[in-house]
């Protein structure tokens, strides 16, 4: 007898839930203690999950159940979630195994790889310190090149992954993997690129003006002409963030502070408790550990963890606020929501929340009340903080335009000259000149392209969500820092519904308006 939609959902949850938890634990272990053993366990857990999701009978039943016209809304949401989880895995077992093995191989390489600089292995924090502080262009160039060595190491495999993902996607009836990922990720491709175009238009002129001023400052600092500036003259290997020369240097204010304590104090002021997450997290750098940062909800029952590689500077203060923004979202989803919908509504909503909290690092009220800067210091910093917030938004928006457009074209033609494509986009959107001599595969040094494909658009939408949330909260509560009513608004209106609502419906309900670039545009004015 055919199961009812409710019974189908219950049965599939019972099958998938332990597999999802096992994969989350395996991924955490492989990220925090990289080894052949943890990588193999991650691969096997991933294969087991994909095997369950590939069940053709279950997928046919999900599609049939979604056709019912009188479904309870939360039941329909669970079926939608199951459909989007299952659709990409309706593949032969051999292809699923190829994908998992190649993805796990690249992920493990990122976790264990350290660049070589002047004969020594260096981690990302050491490279970033040089790019933040050194006035020696030759050393900066060598450090930047060290940051790209991972690209040479994995570049061919990432290209192979793109081809394999495309092959799988076409078996499923999609143009390529980019189209598949958007279609099963509640994202319309035409709407996405209309939004990208709007953000391009909003940011192009102010970014060009700001970048010209920055270039003059950098040229004077390094004793060269503007035309001689190259990627290693800015502070971030990908120019994701503005250099201190074009914004503000807050590092001295964090040098002697406990970033864990600052993070707890921030969320305590909103009536939000992150201590249970802190106890389970892994926050400091060591060999055999991922050099990046992420938050993971292991079981949707409260076991939420954050991975960071903290140092006492502005970048890691912002990253801590960002990742624990993800964490509090996961922790505050209502426990009575069915397990399949007991997560963030969409990656773009949790990225929006994380960016909302990360922005506090340049908020005068936060610096004064949480960090403890005095009135005199704040009066001196205030004008530059406003410029730094604007520079940060401009820089990151232009960076997202690079990555998202690159990924679309990567999957459209993986055999193309990807090195030339990458630098064409960097020069167009970021106004950064390519090096005169290229080793190639600099683009592959960005871990997202391999391990979290077709994700970067969520950061752009996240900036829009963060800007709209900021406007809404200020209108309703008068501010953010130490305002428990702001915390209650986030917990009740945004976090609690989880994935029981689509992202666009959630944003409209919480803020009173559909998501729009207008609030971001106002912050750039």
Secondary-structure map with pairings?
Layout lengths: L4 H28 L3 H18 L2 H10 L7 H14 L6 H20 L2 E3 L2 E3 L1 H10 L3 H11 L1 H23 L5 H7 L5 H34 L28 H4 L4 H10 L6 H6 L13 E4 L6 E4 L6 H19 L14 H12 L5 H8 L3 H38 L5 H13 L16 H5 L5 H21 L6 H12 L7 H9 L6 H7 L1
Antiparallel strand pairs: 1-2, 3-4
Helix pairs in contact: 1-2, 1-3, 1-4, 2-5, 3-4, 5-8, 6-7, 8-9, 10-17, 12-14, 14-15, 14-21, 15-20, 17-18, 17-20, 20-23
Task: Label this structure with key terms.
single chain; 525 residues; Neurolysin, domain 3; mainly alpha; two-stranded antiparallel ribbon; globular; 65% helix; 2 domains
Q: Enumerate the strands of the largest sheet in spatial order, edge to edge or round the barrel.
A: 1-2
Total DSSP helices: 23
Distance N to C terminus? 62 Å
Give the CATH architecture of the largest domain.
Orthogonal Bundle
Structure description:
By secondary structure, this protein is mainly alpha-helical. Helices cover 65% and strands 3% of the residues. A two-stranded antiparallel ribbon has the order 1-2. Strands 3-4 form a two-stranded antiparallel ribbon.
What is the gist of this entry?
This protein has 23 helices and four strands.
């Amino acid at each position: 007898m055919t199961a009812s939609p409710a019974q189908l959902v219950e049965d599939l949850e019972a099958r998938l839930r332990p597999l999802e938890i096992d994969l989350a634990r395996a991924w955490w272990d492989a990220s925090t203690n990289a080894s052949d053993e943890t990588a193999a366990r991650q691969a096997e857990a991933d294969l087991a999950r994909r095997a369950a999701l590939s069940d053709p009978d279950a997928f046919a039943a999900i599609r049939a159940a979604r056709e019912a016209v009188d479904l309870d809304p939360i039941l329909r949401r669970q079926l939608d979630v199951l459909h989007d989880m299952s659709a990409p895995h309706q593949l032969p077992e051999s292809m699923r195994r190829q994908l998992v093995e190649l993805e796990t191989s690249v992920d493990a390489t990122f976790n264990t790889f350290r660049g070589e600089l002047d004969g020594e292995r260096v981690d990302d924090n050491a490279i970033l310190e040089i790019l933040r502080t050194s006035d020696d262009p030759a050393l900066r160039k060598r450090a930047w090149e060290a940051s790209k060595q991972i690209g040479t190491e994995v570049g061919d495999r990432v290209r192979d992954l793109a081809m394999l993902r495309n092959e799988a996607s076409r078996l499923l009836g999609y143009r390529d993997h980019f189209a598949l990922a958007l279609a099963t990720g509640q994202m319309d491709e035409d709407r996405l690129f209309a939004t990208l175009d709007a953000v391009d238009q909003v940011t192009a002129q102010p970014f060009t003006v700001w970048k010209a001023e920055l270039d003059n400052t950098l040229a004077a600092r390094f004793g060269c002409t503007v035309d001689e500036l190259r990627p290693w003259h800015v502070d971030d290997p990908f120019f994701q963030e503005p250099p201190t020369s074009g914004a503000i240097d807050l590092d001295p204010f964090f040098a002697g502070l406990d970033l864990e304590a600052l993070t707890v104090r921030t969320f305590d002021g909103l009536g939000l408790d992150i201590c249970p997450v802190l106890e389970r997290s892994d926050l400091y750098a060591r060999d055999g550990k991922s050099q990046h940062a992420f938050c993971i909800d292991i079981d949707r029952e409260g076991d939420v963890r954050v991975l960071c590689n903290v140092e006492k500077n502005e970048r890691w203060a912002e990253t801590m606020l960002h990742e624990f923004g993800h964490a509090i979202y996961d922790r505050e989803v209502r426990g009575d929501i069915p397990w399949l919908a007991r997560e963030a509504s969409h990656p773009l909503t949790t990225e929006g929340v994380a960016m909302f909290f990360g922005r506090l690092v340049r908020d005068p009220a936060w610096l004064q009340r949480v960090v403890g800067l005095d009135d005199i210091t704040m009066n001196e910093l205030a004008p530059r903080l406003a410029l730094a917030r604007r520079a940060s938004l401009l820089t990151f928006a232009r960076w997202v335009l690079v990555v998202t457009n690159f990924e679309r074209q990567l999957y459209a033609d993986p055999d193309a000259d990807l090195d030339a494509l990458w630098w064409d986009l960097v020069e167009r959107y970021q106004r950064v000149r390519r090096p005169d001599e290229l080793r190639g595969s600099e683009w592959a040094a960005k871990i997202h392209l391999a391990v979290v494909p077709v994700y970067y658009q969520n950061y752009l939408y996240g900036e829009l969500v963060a800007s709209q949330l900021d406007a809404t909260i200020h209108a309703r509560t008068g501010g953010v820092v130490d305002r428990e009513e702001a915390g209650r608004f986030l917990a009740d209106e945004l976090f609690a519904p989880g994935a029981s609502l689509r992202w666009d419906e959630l944003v409209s309900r919480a803020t009173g308006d559909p998501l729009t670039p207008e609030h971001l545009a106002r912050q750039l004015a």
